[in-house]
Amino acid sequence: MNNGISTASQDKRKLEWRTFFLITVVLFPVLSVMTVGGYGFFVWMMQVFFLGPPGHGG
Fold first, then answer.
1. Cα angle for residues 49, 43, 38 (degrees, 5° grid)
2. How far is CA 1 from the centre of its chain?
3. What does the pLDDT look like over 24-57, one tens digit per residue?
């Protein structure tokens, strides 16, 4: 007897949960680290080539 939830629906729910955890546990932290690291690298390169060290201007 069917309990009202089809196997396809259960498989879809499992896939949605796996996707949710992949995004929240892997993708968002990796993108956050890449964004902050990329910004820090950009500021560092600007200081090396154009702006000079902080507090150096007058």
1. 120
2. 44
3. 999 999 999 999 999 999 999 999 999 888 886 6
Cβ neighbours of residue 47 closer than 8 Å, sequence gap 6 or more: 53, 54
Predicted confidence at residue 3, as pLDDT, reads: 63
Residue 54: partners with Cβ closer than 8 Å, 6 or more residues away:
47
- CA 8 to chain CA centroid, Å, is 30
The DSSP letter of residue 58 is -
Question: What tokens does 40 get?
Answer: 């820090």
User: Alpha helix (H) ranges present in 7-52?
Assistant: 7-21, 28-46
